Amino acid sequence: MINLGVLVSGSGTNLQAIIDGIDAGRLDAKIKIVISNNANAYAIERAKKHNIPAFIIQDSHFKTREDSDRHIVEIIKSHSVDLVVLAGFMRLLTPVLIKSFPMRIINIHPALLPAFPGLHAQKKAVEYGAKFSGCTVHFVDEGVDTGPIIIQAVVSVDDNDTEETLSKKIQKEEHKIYPEAIRLFAEGRIELKGRKVVIL
Ligand code: GAR
């Protein structure tokens, strides 16, 4: 059993997929805390419904982002979190946070990295004319979506796809591979060889 800290900004469907995986017994983990940088995130309601302590930490309440991240680090450490899970956390982490949990922070990105890093990945894939896109679970390093890749899933981009329809297709896959990646981590089956992740 591992302890998770989940960082969110929005609707929290990935948080929900992780909660559902735990409830269904597919994932031997406990979500100790949810942290949101957005007071209006629906993810906070999802956490509350499942009696998971939820904290709202907004950058505007701190002098710098580093100060905000120092506060996040304190909260995560005081809840014995083994793995930090970014689930639609829509702001870059500062080195303060990244260096506190080396190779213990994972993210889900709505594209097949290294294609379309950063914001609006689905829109970029449609506009570029990519025939396939998908989602990537990866470790977080100090770059933008550059850390070692754990799992990816592919979806086709059809001629009539829009940002919205592609996002829906990708999210369906996200909800499968994110709990799966956490399960692999929890079972100690993720080994890092250079920048390559080997699944044991
Ligand atoms: C997800 O599609 C995730 O891939 C994306 O935000 C969405 C959050 O949805 N993350 C990023 O774009 C990170 N750069 P959710 O709040 O319903 O889980």
Q: Could you walk me through the main structural features you see in this protein, from its secondary elements to its overall organization?
A:
- There is one protein chain.
- The chain is 36% helix and 26% strand.
- With 200 residues, it is an alpha/beta fold.
- The chain folds into 2 domains: 101 residues, Formyl transferase, N-terminal domain (Rossmann fold, 3-Layer(aba) Sandwich); 93 residues, Formyl transferase, N-terminal domain (Rossmann fold, 3-Layer(aba) Sandwich).
- The strands form 2 sheets. A 7-stranded mixed β-sheet has the order 3-2-1-4-5-6-7. It has a two-stranded antiparallel sheet with strand order 8-9.
- Helix 5 crosses helix 6.
- The longest helix is centred in the last third of the chain and has 24 residues.
- The two termini are 18 Å apart.
- 38% of the residues are buried.
- It binds glycinamide ribonucleotide.
- Glycinamide ribonucleotide binds next to helix 1, strand 5 and helix 6.
